[in-house]
């Protein structure tokens, strides 16, 4: 069994944004030398997501609006008790649960085994500081 | 290490529906010859889900109503900017995030290692056309 | 390839609560003898979750309030058709979809490869009876 581990670091300028990280994951798969296996990609921070969807700017704007409805940004400790700790990111811990922490992707013939529109995104909900993503590939 | 990859294709008659695909996944596990390992099952399209829950028609009706509240079908480009692309499925991209893209199931003694009520479902949110599901099993 | 499977059982006193199960998962990783691989942790019941987030009591209180807004407890069969079956836990099947069934965590150098604040939680949404969690580690 082979295994390969890589870490990416992102500092997103906005509070909330989505980055297409598919090229970096494809690069890690090539470097792993794995032909058949599984590839895990996860946010290492709990106010961020890794998810798979469409690389379409209108959709990403829809997601931002929808997530803001589901869990509005509100630094006060009234809406989010979490913000009594001095943090202002209670909303981000909720948004991340909707969009998910991780994806697991099949590696087949040495490549990410994707449907026609699948792309991997890093979802940031509490940006403006460096945060990490883990990529781990195991297989043969 | 053994690996086994299968693709399923579904053309769902309704816009939104749930199909129990547990028998097909069990068949793939038997064909894999894997006794101890992991089984990934994921939607290959970004307006569909694979998830694990109960095979109970009332619950599935509840899910449909709930998802419609969370992200109503609306082909206009006012609610979903994504629909400015000419698509009418902005809602489906949201519903899929709530229900998830994939499940990873343990394979133990050559079988899906399930609790008493766990069943695997394909969740379609933009049906009426053929769409694919990937099954990948790795282990020994 | 090595593999290791463990089952945990929890009987949560409240209807809804979150338990930090990171120590139990770390123990299973040590027992597995796996140095590089993947660790799956999933709820075996369909009214419970396993998820990764912050071990902060205020946040957990926020989650409880938010999940109650998203899918209120209501034993009547009017809101949830699922409750026509004689169950009263329709809400729990919805809450579990928001928080997720499982996590997959990288094992690197024999340890859970975690960011600074990642902790694994069992999320119970229909407690007061024994329910199981599965841990499966594969790798080398």
Q: How is this fold's topology laid out?
A:
Three copies of one chain form a homotrimer.
Chain A: E1 2-11, E2 17-20, H1 22-32, E3 37-43, E4 48-53, H2 57-70, H3 90-99, E5 102-108, E6 111-112, E7 119-124, E8 130-139
Antiparallel strand pairs in A: 1-8, 2-7, 3-5, 3-8, 4-7, 5-6
Give keywords.
homotrimer, about 140 residues, alpha+beta, five-stranded antiparallel sheet, three-stranded antiparallel sheet, 3 helices
Stretches with pLDDT under 50, minimum 5 residues of chain A: none
Major sheet size, sense and barrel closure of chain A: 5 strands, antiparallel
Radius of gyration of chain A, taken over Cα atoms and rounded to an integer in Å? 16 Å
Read across the widest sheet of chain A, the strand sequence of neighbours is 1-8-3-5-6
Number of helices, where a helix is a run of at least 4 consecutive DSSP H or I residues of chain A: 3
Average pLDDT of chain A: 98
Shape of chain A: elongated
Largest interface, with counts of residues having CB < 8 Å to the other chain, equals: A-B, 33 and 32 residues
Q: N-to-C SSE series of chain A?
A: EEHEEHHEEEE
Describe the protein's architecture and organization.
3 copies of one chain form a homotrimer. By secondary structure, chain A is α+β, with helices and mostly antiparallel strands. The first copy, chain A, is built from 3 helices and 8 strands; from the N terminus they run ββαββααββββ. Chain A has helices at residues 22-32, 57-70, 90-99; strands at 2-11, 17-20, 37-43, 48-53, 102-108, 111-112, 119-124, 130-139. In chain A, strands 1-8-3-5-6 form a 5-stranded antiparallel β-sheet, with helices on one face. Chain A has a 3-stranded antiparallel β-sheet with strand order 2-7-4. Chains in contact: A-B, A-C, B-C. Chains A and B meet through β4, α2 and β5 of A and β3, α3 and β8 of B.
């Amino acid at each position: 069994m082979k295994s390969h581990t890589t870490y990416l670091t992102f500092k997103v300028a906005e509070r909330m944004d989505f980055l297409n990280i598919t090229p970096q994951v494809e690069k890690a798969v090539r470097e792993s030398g794995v032909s058949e296996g599984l590839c895990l990609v996860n946010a290492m921070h709990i106010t961020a997501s890794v998810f798979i969807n469409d690389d379409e700017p209108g959709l990403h704007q829809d997601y931002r609006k929808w997530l803001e409805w589901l869990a509005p940004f509100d630094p006060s400790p009234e809406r989010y008790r979490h913000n009594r700790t001095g943090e202002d990111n209670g909303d981000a811990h909720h948004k991340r649960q909707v969009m998910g922490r991780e994806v697991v992707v099949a590696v087949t013939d040495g490549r990410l085994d994707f449907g026609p529109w699948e792309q991997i995104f890093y979802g940031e909900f509490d940006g403006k500081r460096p945060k990490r993503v883990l990529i781990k590939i195991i297989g043969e």
